[in-house]
């Protein structure tokens, strides 16, 4: 109970709500060029556009999908180089905001150069892109493995059933890997992985639960389209990003608090 009380105090003291709003802004800026970039890559990878939509549909609130679909259908997919630049630059700005929030959580000053911070943000962004692409390709590989097993003994049903169940585990695992990398590399503090895993686990579980609950709230209770009209999807998207940013920052605060308590016990 004392830990939770101190965690809540640190979250408010370190301006967690305003930092979450900042992350939501950068998430919104980076989402659409990033998705257009992924759709552009579809022509070079054995992935269908529906596979990319399905990844977002797992957790994205129902009211946001029309906005996302419209952007993907109207975006210029021929500008692959522009898509790379826009996605990486916008997303790295979001990572840069996360770096600042984590430094605030650990109460350390940023003494790395602007070039080092930007390079770290870009590398983390590229790592996220690669991780998401792997997540998109896994179903393709699963079907290929199932077809290969079918060609051998003609009984792929058991494997395909197991693979479908495994996909529910793979998605949280991908999230956990992304959060672990963020919590380890983003702050200007030397950390061991034992002080990274708790926050990554909390952020993964918290983000999934918040996304599911908020999606249910939007679908069954609230009617943002009736209130805001065509802007309803954007409003829902921003609230979802705000809650997502909050989960990421809380995970960072958990790691920072554990690190602080460990340092006090060692001194």
UniProtKB/TrEMBL annotation:
<keyword id="KW-0472">Membrane</keyword>
<feature type="transmembrane region" description="Helical">
    <location>
        <begin position="79"/>
        <end position="102"/>
    </location>
</feature>
<dbReference type="InterPro" id="IPR017039">
    <property type="entry name" value="Virul_fac_BrkB"/>
</dbReference>
<dbReference type="Pfam" id="PF03631">
    <property type="entry name" value="Virul_fac_BrkB"/>
</dbReference>
<keyword id="KW-0812">Transmembrane</keyword>
<feature type="transmembrane region" description="Helical">
    <location>
        <begin position="195"/>
        <end position="218"/>
    </location>
</feature>
<feature type="transmembrane region" description="Helical">
    <location>
        <begin position="230"/>
        <end position="250"/>
    </location>
</feature>
<protein>
    <submittedName>
        <fullName>YihY family inner membrane protein</fullName>
    </submittedName>
</protein>
<keyword id="KW-1003">Cell membrane</keyword>
<keyword id="KW-1133">Transmembrane helix</keyword>
<feature type="transmembrane region" description="Helical">
    <location>
        <begin position="23"/>
        <end position="45"/>
    </location>
</feature>
<feature type="transmembrane region" description="Helical">
    <location>
        <begin position="165"/>
        <end position="186"/>
    </location>
</feature>
<feature type="transmembrane region" description="Helical">
    <location>
        <begin position="122"/>
        <end position="145"/>
    </location>
</feature>
């Amino acid at each position: 109970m004392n830990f939770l009380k101190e965690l809540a105090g640190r979250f408010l003291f370190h301006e967690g709500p305003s930092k979450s709003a900042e992350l939501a802004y950068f998430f919104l800026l980076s989402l659409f060029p990033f998705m257009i970039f992924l759709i552009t890559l579809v022509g070079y990878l054995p992935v269908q556009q529906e596979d990319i939509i399905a990844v977002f549909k797992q957790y994205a609130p129902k009211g946001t999908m029309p906005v996302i679909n419209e952007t993907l259908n109207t975006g210029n997919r021929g500008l692959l180089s522009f898509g790379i630049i826009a996605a990486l630059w916008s997303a790295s700005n979001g990572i840069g905001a996360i770096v600042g929030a984590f430094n605030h959580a650990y109460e350390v000053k940023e003494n790395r150069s602007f070039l080092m911070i930007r390079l770290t943000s870009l590398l983390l962004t590229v790592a996220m892109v690669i991780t998401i692409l792997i997540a998109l390709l896994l179903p393709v590989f699963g079907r290929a493995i199932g077809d290969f097993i079918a060609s051998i003994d003609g009984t792929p049903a058991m494997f395909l059933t197991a693979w479908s169940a495994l996909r529910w585990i793979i998605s949280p695992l991908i999230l956990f890997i992304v959060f672990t990398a963020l919590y380890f590399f983003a702050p200007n503090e030397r950390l061991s992985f034992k002080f990274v895993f708790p926050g990554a686990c909390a952020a993964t579980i918290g983000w999934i639960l918040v996304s599911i609950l908020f999606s249910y709230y939007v679908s069954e209770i609230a009617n943002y389209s009736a209130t805001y009209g065509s802007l309803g999807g954007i409003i829902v998207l921003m609230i979802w990003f705000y809650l997502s940013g909050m989960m990421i920052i809380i995970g960072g605060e958990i790691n920072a608090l554990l690190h602080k308590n460990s340092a006090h016990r060692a001194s």
